[in-house]
Design goal:
Elements (H helix, E strand, L loop, with lengths): L5 E4 H6 L2 E5 L10 H12 L5 E14 L2 E8 L1 H14 L5 H9 L3 E4 L3 H14 L14 H21 L9 H7 E7 L6 H11 L5 H11 L4 H15 L11 H8 L11 H5 L20 H10 L4 H9 L9 E2 L4 H13 L11 H10 L14 H22 L2 E3 L11 E2 L1 E5 L8 E5 L3 H17 L7 H11 L6 H20 L6 H12 L7 H16 L5 H9 L9 H19 L19 E4 L21 E4 L1 H7 L4 H7 L7 H13 L4 H19 L6
Parallel strand pairs: 2-4, 2-5, 3-6
Antiparallel strand pairs: 1-6, 3-4, 7-8, 8-9, 10-11, 12-13
Length: 699
């Protein structure tokens, strides 16, 4: 790269007199409603400085005193920002007029220069696109409309999203709070060769590829470069256990004879037999340095990629490499590792500023203030970070919950797993096997509480709970399952207090605050629902077996040695509802706490609907917590206006959340669901949440 990436807020990006040209070998604009609305939601969430992503460019001269950049990566995001600015800059107010007057950036598409150019200019000047036939008429109306349709659709999606006044984006907030990272390729990069290789493989340069090349170019020894490359290749495949991707020699060197040891921090041990190269070689020859451009060009020229060759050589001929579905992407995982490596809570968990953060904290560090390491150098940091990456990935593989590869993602079919890869010494079948990560006493407990966080923090970014787990694991020489569970429980209790916004110390104060936090209808925090389901699972699933020992486990979620009175009341009511359902006639739904698993239920459902299909008015307390639960979006959209008793007949209740089952149980027992039942359950859950959120206030 030509230097540190430029971090530009949207005002700087659009006010700068630059031309961004999308080359002919890049595809046309292709974002649809999902991608556009995701970007809009990201902008709305911007609180303080928010990084929207990266823009990789190559400087290709100037025209009329304007710097011209070819857009290498990020053109879909850049075009959407252009459409967003066009939609916002034509409001009849001074703010919009000032922003439009300062807008000097131009966006061009070589592949559709005339049609796209005319439409983009029209949107910028007038904000109107109601007559697409008039744009680029020289191409013929049908051809022009066909070519411009993706841009027109994108613009209309934004306009339609703004029809709801509450979803309107503040222009000044967009211009000042939202930033993008512009990164330049070196001036000597052979772009034709670069794109030829990329197009052949059907891939684009990703920010993590740039980071890898920077780390490798920061070290002078060929052996060190190869080791960093191998660590990166093994760690970047987030859907395989590392032992299945490493070579036989690497498995033993990095993970020990049984593949159970955490990788060493000592760099020479990671490098292995080739370590003498780190001292300049036996013949005293000078170390061979390579520029970032050289490393990047080597990676682009490999056919097939080195990562694929090495992974293939590491796979067992008699094995199907074991796969799982990771709960986090590799770029986001890198940000978690970077925060741990830097020991700095200011490192964002969002992967948008990936390039700039790595430049500032790893590659270009030459003083002891950035990471607290005396006499730190770029080479030392590159090695140190590669070692930290391998260690953190080992912790992730061994101690963090995942989903089975054959599970449907973001659905109610997800099955969770917590396994670790071990060497099979008998070698009768596979050379490895999968074992439970922890003892039977805590294995299922850890799966439940970790999966509770994963279905709450569904995106790849801002996985605060995952970071809290990795940080705790990083600090331990040996991982004790019970201590790990206790740590996550304490973190969960703190998170619950935060979501409930508890500030008072008196019971009545707290319960008023809880009532306000949970009676928010569809605006109620999803974590509160999921944590309540976790607490109910602990209370109900352990109620019948080994009462003393299991009750000690259940009491642990309250931070006490004994269960509070409200917990006993919950158990009693559940038993009544379950027994009633079991002995009722045909059509009654059974309740089953043992089959409960956390799924991606991400839509708040009103049990008694806001707008009943049967007519009549909704209960006055329809938005209270006792009438709410989480369902999958698919389930909610299909049945959201059915009344409560009708919903019971249409759902497989035993597969739903425990809170939903509780509502069904009371409705079936009392043969009705209305204002009184909602009030009754709301009060029960407020008392339980009060007990769960702070042990000192248990009543």
């Amino acid at each position: 790269m030509t230097g540190e990436p430029a971090v530009l807020n949207i005002a700087e990006l659009f006010d700068e007199g630059c031309v961004y040209r999308v080359p002919i070998y890049q595809r046309a604009y292709a974002w649809g409603a999902d991608e556009i609305k995701t970007l809009l939601d990201d902008v709305r969430r911007a609180d303080g400085q928010y990084y929207l992503g990266s823009l990789v460019v190559a400087r290709c001269g100037s025209e009329r005193n304007r710097t011209v950049y070819e857009v290498i990566d990020g053109q879909q995001r850049l075009t959407t920002l252009y459409l967003l600015m066009a939609a916002l800059c034509h409001d009849d107010d001074d703010q919009a007029a000032a922003a439009l007057d300062a807008w000097h950036m131009r966006l061009e598409y070589e592949c559709r220069a005339e049609s796209y150019g005319a439409l983009l200019q029209q949107l910028r000047k007038s904000g109107a696109s109601d007559q697409p036939e008039d744009v680029g008429a020289q191409d013929g109306p049908s051809d022009q409309e066909t070519m411009c349709r993706p841009l027109l659709d994108g613009y209309q999606i934004i306009r339609q999203d703004f029809e709801d006044p509450e979803r309107r984006i503040d222009l000044e907030k967009l211009r000042t709070n939202v930033s993008i990272v512009r990164d330049e390729l070196p001036s000597g990069t052979d772009l034709n060769r670069y794109f030829e290789v990329m197009n052949t493989r059907g891939v684009q340069l990703r920010p993590q590829d740039v980071v890898k090349a920077r780390l490798m170019s920061a070290v002078s020894s060929p052996t060190d470069r190869e080791t960093i490359g191998r660590i990166w290749d093994v760690c970047s495949d987030m859907d395989h256990y590392m032992q299945c991707l490493a070579t036989p020699d690497e498995r033993t060197r990095w993970f020990g004879e049984g593949w159970t040891s955490a990788p060493p921090a000592d760099w020479n041990r990671l490098v292995g037999e080739a370590a003498p190269d780190n001292d300049g070689g036996d013949d005293g020859s000078a170390k061979l340095s390579k520029s970032f451009e050289d490393v990047l060009q080597e990676a682009l020229s490999e056919e097939p990629p080195q990562a694929e060759q090495q992974a293939q050589s590491g796979a067992h001929s008699d094995d199907e490499t074991e796969r799982y579905r990771s709960v986090i992407s590799f770029p986001a995982f890198l940000m978690h590792v970077l925060r741990i490596y830097s020991d700095d809570e200011n490192v964002p968990l969002d992967d948008a500023p990936l390039l700039s953060e790595f430049d500032n904290r790893v590659v270009n560090i030459f003083d002891d203030k950035a990471v607290g390491i005396p006499s730190a150098s770029a080479e030392d940091n590159a090695k140190r970070f590669a070692a930290a990456l391998l260690q953190c990935r080992f912790l992730f593989d061994n101690y963090i919950v995942k989903t089975h590869m054959d599970s449907a993602v973001l659905s109610d079919a997800t099955e969770w797993t917590l396994k670790c890869c071990r060497k099979n010494k008998s070698k009768k079948e596979r050379s490895y096997y999968l074992a439970n990560a922890f003892s039977d006493e805590v294995q299922q407990e850890l799966i439940m509480i970790q999966s509770m966080f994963q279905v709450t923090e569904t995106g790849n970014n801002h996985k605060k709970a995952l970071y809290a787990m990795l940080q705790w694991l990083w600090a331990k020489e040996a991982v004790d399952g019970s201590a790990f569970l206790q740590h996550i429980r304490e973190y969960a209790r703190g998170s619950l207090e935060e979501k409930l916004q508890l500030k008072g110390t008196l019971t009545e104060e707290r319960r008023l605050q809880i009532r306000e936090a949970v009676n928010q209808g569809v605006g109620t925090e999803h974590f509160i629902f999921n944590y309540l389901d976790y607490a109910l699972w602990e209370l109900l699933n352990h109620a019948d077996d080994s009462p003393q020992g299991q009750d000690m486990s259940a009491a642990g979620i309250f931070g006490t040695d004994e269960l509070p009175a409200v917990a006993s009341e919950v158990r009693t009511r559940w038993n009544e509802y379950a027994e009633q359902a079991e002995h009722s006639g045909e059509g009654a739904q059974t309740l089953d706490c043992r089959r409960f698993r956390f799924r991606y239920r991400n839509s708040v459902e009103h049990f008694s609907p806001q707008h009943p299909l049967s007519g009549g008015d909704a209960p006055p307390n329809v938005n209270d917590f006792g009438n709410l639960c989480l369902l999958t979006v698919r389930e909610n959209s299909r049945r959201n206006n059915l009344d409560a008793m009708e919903k019971i007949r249409h759902f497989n209740v035993a597969q739903q959340s425990l809170k939903f089952q509780f509502m069904v149980g009371q409705a079936q027992k009392e043969t009705t669901w209305g204002e009184q039942q909602i009030k009754d359950q709301t009060e029960l859950w407020i008392r339980l949440l009060d007990a769960l959120s702070d042990a000192s206030h248990v009543r």
